[in-house]
Amino acid sequence: MPEAQASLAAPTAATADPLTDMRAVGARALTLTVAVLGVVLALASIVELAFVEAREVAGKRALLGLALVITALVAARLRHRHPGAVLVGLLSTVMLGMAFNAWSTGLGVHMVTLGALAMLIATAGPTLGQRGALALALMYVAVVGVLAWGETSGLIAGRAAEAQLSLASRLIGHGLVAVAGLLAAALLARLMDAALQRAAQDHQRVTELLDLGSDWTWELDADARLKTLSASFEARSGYKRADFERLNEPGQPRIVDDENWRALKQVFRERREFREQLLTYVGPDGAPMHALFSGAPVFDAAGLLTGWRGVGRNVTAEREAELAQRRAEALLNRLYESSPDAICVVRASDARILLANAGFLRFTGLTQRDVVGRAVGDLALWPDLEEPRRVLREMRSGDGTVRDLHTLVHLHDGSEREVLVTAAGFESEGTTLAVVTLRDITEVERARRESDAILDNASVGIALVRRNRIERANAALEAMLGCAPGTLSGERASSLLPAAQAGEGHGARPTLHEDGPHDELDFEREVTRRDGRRILVRLRARPVDASQPQSAGTIWVVEDITARRTDEAALAQAKREAEAASQAKSAFLATMSHEIRTPLNGVVGLARLLQDERLDGSRRAEYLAHLADSAKLLSGIVSDVLDLSKIESGHLQVEHIVFDLHEVVQSTFAAFAALGQERGLAMRCQLDAGLPRHVRGDPVRLRQILANYLSNALKFTERGSVTLLAQPRPGSRVRLSVQDSGPGVAPDLQGKLFEPFLQADSSTTRRFGGTGLGLSICRQLARLMDGEVGVESAGARVSVIDGAIDGAKDSTKDSANDTGNDGRQGSLFWAELPLPAQLPPARPAGVAGPERPEARPLEGLQVLVAEDNAVNMLIVVAMLQRLGATVFEAGDGEMALLMAREHAGTLDAVLMDLHMPGCDGLAATRVLRIDAETAALPVFAFSAAVLDHERREAEAAGMNGFIAKPVEVGELLRVLGPLVAGAAGSLQVRHAAV
Asked: How far apart are CA 488 and CA 480, in angstroms?
């Protein structure tokens, strides 16, 4: 039911009784009349009090006027709920007021004064009925009687008595007035009843006529609240009237706020007539109801809006049917237009195309103008123009359809497509039409041919078994079973696995000659080929359609796993070997624990011994020498482990720089020569005459390889000699070998030498110590430099480590001189590396080569060291001061920042520990790089962290280099040495400033 505003309160229903409406109108009019009468009477009394001497009478009249006004106010509050009682009260009040006036003025039973009361009795007839009129008549008689008594007893003056008839005559006259009022009331009531009956009959007739139709009627008051709703509403709408009387309340029907509802609200605001306005409701059950409303505003004689009335009709079924039809048409049109197939409607009589969907245009590459109205043959899609006509003839001659006609069409772009043609005829307005569908199956056919090719070329045997027969078998299965091509198809399924073999060793396993499994099967069996050879196969089966396994068939996949089982046996052996390697790694970890604890125990024990103040100088020097040896050994172990970790993770990189090969070989040899001579060994270093001096490569890693070789040679050689050989090889290669006269390596143990975590003999660890990583690291380093290492052995007592690395050619002459095994007992460790010869770096004329560094090479250099560990700080400060540098100490990053800014004009370098409490080295470096005064100050990472990602983080923070802990003097000179010249210049500038 429509409402004028969405925010209206819930509508309240009102009765449609005409008598009640009449009483309400009478009550409203009489209330207004009594109020006006009371106001006028009160105002007149006030004027009379001001200008007339009869003040007592005027006061009584004023009191009467005030009583009438009060009565009218009370009636105004009650007239909506009790209009009949209000009418009785108002009429009684007026009658008593007139009697009070007659008493107070002394007129008494005055015909003119009380005659008007007959009008009140007559008014009560049509509004209050015969009983109401009789009650007023009796009240009228009682009032007259009281006044007559007052007049005869002398209480009332009876001022008009001289000009009137006798009291009896006047009482008779009043009786006639009362009777006349009653008769008038009866007459008016009779007339009113007749009018109301006719109105009720007319209303009933109109209501019955409306109930016979599909509409219902409704009325609203001026505030758009529901007044009436016809009884036919429930039958027409399917909803209860009580539900719609509480429209838009929570849980009750609501109006859908759409464009139609907003338009109707505007009509209500403009107070215009409306017709066939559609509204949608949602009932308490959530079902929508669509209704059409027509209505018009109702105005009174003064032009004021009194309400709205109109009719409504439930059009939900029609609306839903219309929407369903639209949806169906839209869906059909969408299916027609969006179908991937090419669809057209053709007139059967002349094969002309009447409609074509987007798929048809897309497939043919034509437009609607090119297609519609033209005959199918005119499109030149078929080389044989008779083919489309034949399709239409078959359709007309048969059952009206042509299904899945496989044909080839030629498109306008020159391509050929395979299509399936389907045609279905129907009649439309006496004309036979056909819906022709062209389905492009080019890709499907290509995929089918490709799948056939894949099936025929598959490495496993595949067969389709349906109803206990092999319908198809690929070439691999036929070859696997030793059958001639094409001979398996059509045979019984037992051909795959003869029944005699089916039960061998498998108990209740299903056999292949069953109709087909309901579930997937996967098992292994030995089968005999046609040539008699037995093979082990794996058979897997699954139904094409699990719901219809017998009719749909079963796909069998047969795989020859004879070779796989052999490989698995080899894999098991490899697994056992891997487990042995794992055990070796565990043994290595145990060894490492011992190897680390041994020098660590020496470092700790000797440090405690050195704390004894009673030690003499010689004993203290001896302890210090042993302490340095233990620390060096511990550092070497940790370095080996870290090198291997970086190599295995792929993070170790080698350099390619120009260096002096002679110097690297000779200096490395010199480091071990003194130790060998102390043991009584003959130490020799031989550099071939054709060996290039300046080469390109990684001197640090080359020195590491040579050091490992020489260390092993000294470790295992008790007497005899150790020889280091360096020889040129073809292809810019250099052969480096270490030959010793030690015990050698047995042939069966040579393969273990270069494996990580392994040693040729675990007893060597107990005897000589070591981690077993050195030679493994050597091989990995050589491979990173495109080289190789190896071992040569002439028996159980002689061994040679050998290798080869490819490299770029250079201009040096090749040397074929080779120092092989000279027949002496021992081992020959050697590596062959690509070290292209390079010209020495250019030097300005007159400038001498490098000289021996001064005893204080860092003299004048000012260095800030940021380190939170007191021991590390003590060590590096002592080293720097021994080298001549001036050192500033900072215990954390924040102190380092303060001191760097304080000495910004004098500092030459900063050694910054990466890991410090609070502000770490990386954060401090970033701050230094932001500050303009310290942005160019060289900062070097000073940390035990040696992983690549930590070095990258240091570079990203703005650090200039990296010094690893434990600190070596040579590393300090390498990093800080280039800054000495700059420091000297800055000293001169500072001295000039002073």
From this structure: 12
